[in-house]
Fold:
Amino acid sequence: MDEGAQERAAALLAEAFTSRTFLNGFPSVLKPAGLADAYGIQDRLVGMLDAVPAGWKVGASNEEVQRRLQFTEPFYGRMFAGQIHTSPVELPAGAFFRRALEIELAFRMVTDLPASGAPYDRDAVTAAAGVLMPAIEICDSRYQDYPPPPFDIVADNGVHGAFVAGDPVAGWRDLDLAACEATLTVNGELKGSGRGVAVLGNPLNSLVWLANALAAHGSGLAAGEIVTTGTMARAVWAEPGDHAVADFGALGSVSVAFTIP
Structure:
């Protein structure tokens, strides 16, 4: 897939973003045939959107999600400043094509991790991550059919929709993040639960993966960026009018409600 084809595919996704209309897949000549194509489209899409990059999401860092979406490794997408919110928050349901809620742990970086410093190990990444936050990622997809093929997911900015952060967790470096437990309730009804171990064995491993994956593509993590590391449990769909709460026990909680116009 040449750069011109990647540009045309990205333009179709950008039009879906801005017009709020579903994309009925790519024409066969514009379908990404591999991760290189998919990230090429994603990079061009990010450049076309009127949005300020402010962080990253990691997807398919959970083995169950990998099996369900047909991935053999994690993937990443960009988060934008206008999509990052602080709990509790009300968001218009109509701002999303779909609302798939994932319970996640996220980090705010305090030190750059440039491509030139790779490969990074867990000690280096942990030192660069200053803040831990419980979070809900709201996944969204611009495609009419869901789930789309895996490379299409990556091209669609990793199907990121929005991010809601809880309060920073004090003393998080002394915690066993693999043992962290969380539940997700929607309108007071338990819909899912999971543990940090589901995220590549430990959410910090997801952060290490991202730092090195970005370096392999000539990029890096920057101080101030937020990274959400991937879901601890299966995604839960939310409808207009729903109120969701992710409870991380001693690590705090995160709340988001979807308002109806």
